[in-house]
């Protein structure tokens, strides 16, 4: 059996927020490999040196992962190539090695494009199974973990984050559909008949906290310390921080983090000097914010509720509203924007990042009750930030 079909190739690409040198170390040092790839590794950074990635290091030899694999070539900070084998359960093709090529390219200061090519495939039988296995493994697990490593931190292998995509469920005739997309917990799902979208999403986010989804893991002490020193950033996508220049000066501002629980944006803004209230539908997500506040000595107020009903707040209560990719979880965004306008002070700002398809119109800055298209958010694409000042 030969691995000799040159037309059969797996390709993947990701941009991570790290220098080329940092990404190179992640792929070529034991400390780096175990921060995102697997719990253990055996590596020798020379041609024909070992490049073994051990996903189950406590298993019997031959069952631990990529064993017997070797470095084929490398160019420091540019490229590495290594042999690879099928997982142990595909024994018929495991002994036939394939080839993985990793190329690194600096696309901006502190940003690196990682391109992966996996070639050397045969066809038929377990070859097809192995090919399908690694299409998913590289694109839905390893490369997302590399992003996670540089956006959140090294993988905790006792509780690794979930990047699984839930299977789609057909909507019932009486159910409304909630869209989860791209860099959010994924899958188009329907609220069960008789259950409101609000309750459905509350339960779903609570479950995602238990699964340690990337958007539920609190920020690190190092990130909070940096924010206290003025070097702060918040993430609304897996790896690209929102530019700080998009924000007004934070010290002393009353900030509402709207539908923004999870212990991520709120604590960073509080450490940067803002007076922060985090408002979210999920009690478990709010617990993550309280956890960071207690751990770091931050003053953060948490409030559970529906983003379309901010009646717990008086009018003109906030200077800034930070609204991450959240309004796709509601059937009608208009009440959300009306309430945001009501609680915003004159001269304040609303910052939101949305995913959308078709056409969506936002209220113009300074206008009350601006009209929105009533379209559902389908086939979303990344939409740039909007900061609108209320006058």
Relevant CATH superfamily of the largest domain:
Vaccinia Virus protein VP39
The overall number of domains is: 2
Unreliable segments (pLDDT under 50, ≥5 consecutive)? Answer: 164-189, 355-391
Distance between the termini: 72 Å
The structure class reads: alpha+beta
Q: Which CATH top level class of the largest domain fits?
A: Alpha Beta
| Major sheet summary line | 6 strands, mixed
Helix content bin: 10-25%
The number of distinct β-strands equals 18
Average residue-wise pLDDT: 81
Q: From the alpha-carbon coordinates, what is the Rg to the nearest angstrom? A: 23 Å
SSE string: EHHEEEEEHEEHEEHHEHEHEEHEEEE
CATH architectural name of the largest domain: 3-Layer(aba) Sandwich
Shape by Cα distribution? elongated
Q: Strand content of the residues, in percent?
A: 15-25%
Q: What spatial order of strands do you see in the largest sheet?
A: 13-12-11-14-15-18
- Number of discrete helical segments: 9
Q: Look up the CATH topology of the largest domain.
A: Rossmann fold
List the helices and strands and how they pair.
Layout lengths: L9 E7 L3 H9 L1 H4 L6 E4 L7 E4 L10 E2 L4 E5 L3 E6 L6 H4 L3 E11 L2 E9 L6 H26 L25 E2 L10 E2 L6 H15 L9 H8 L25 E5 L6 H7 L3 E6 L2 H14 L3 E5 L13 E6 L10 H10 E9 L2 E2 L24 E2 L3 E4 L2
Parallel strand pairs: 11-12, 11-14, 12-13, 14-15
Antiparallel strand pairs: 1-8, 2-3, 3-4, 5-6, 6-7, 7-8, 9-10, 15-18, 16-17
Helix pairs in contact: 6-7
């Amino acid at each position: 059996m030969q691995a000799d079909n040159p037309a059969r190739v797996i390709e993947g690409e990701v941009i991570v927020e790290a220098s080329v040198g940092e990404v190179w170390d992640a792929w070529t040092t034991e400390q780096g490999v175990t921060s995102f790839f697997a719990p253990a590794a055996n590596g020798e950074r020379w041609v024909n040196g070992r490049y073994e990635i051990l996903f189950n290091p406590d298993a019997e030899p031959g069952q631990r992962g990529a064993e017997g694999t070797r470095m084929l070539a490398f160019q420091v900070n540019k490229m590495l190539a290594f042999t690879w084998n099928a997982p142990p359960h595909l024994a018929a093709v495991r002994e036939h090695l394939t080839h993985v090529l990793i190329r690194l390219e600096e696309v901006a200061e502190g940003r690196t494009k990682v391109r992966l090519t996996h070639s050397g495939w045969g066809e038929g039988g377990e070859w097809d199974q192995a090919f399908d296995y690694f299409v998913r493994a590289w694109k839905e697990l390893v490369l997302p973990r590399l992003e996670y490593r540089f956006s959140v931190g090294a993988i905790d292998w006792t509780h690794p984050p979930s990047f699984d995509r839930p299977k789609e469920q057909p909507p019932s005739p009486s159910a409304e559909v909630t869209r989860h997309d791209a860099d959010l917990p994924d899958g188009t799902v329907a609220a069960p008949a008789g259950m409101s979208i609000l309750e459905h999403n509350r339960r779903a986010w609570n479950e995602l906290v238990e699964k340690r989804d990337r958007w539920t893991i609190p920020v690190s002490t190092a990130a909070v310390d940096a924010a206290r020193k003025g070097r702060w950033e918040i993430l609304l996508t897996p790896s690209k921080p929102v530019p700080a220049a998009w924000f007004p000066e934070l010290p002393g501002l009353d900030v509402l983090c709207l539908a923004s629980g999870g212990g991520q944006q709120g604590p960073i803004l509080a450490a940067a000097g803002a007076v922060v209230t985090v408002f979210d539908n999920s009690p478990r997500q709010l617990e993550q914010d309280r956890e960071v506040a207690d751990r770091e000595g931050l003053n953060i107020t948490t409030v559970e509720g529906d983003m379309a009903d901010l009646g717990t707040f008086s009018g003109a209560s906030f200077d800034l509203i930070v609204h991450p990719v959240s309004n796709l979880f509601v059937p009608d965004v208009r009440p959300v924007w009306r309430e945001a306008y009501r609680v915003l002070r004159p001269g304040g700002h609303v910052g939101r990042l949305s995913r959308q398809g078709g056409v969506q119109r936002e209220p113009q800055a300074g206008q009350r009750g601006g009209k929105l298209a009533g379209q559902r958010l389908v086939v979303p694409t990344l939409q740039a930030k909007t900061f609108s000042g209320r006058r």
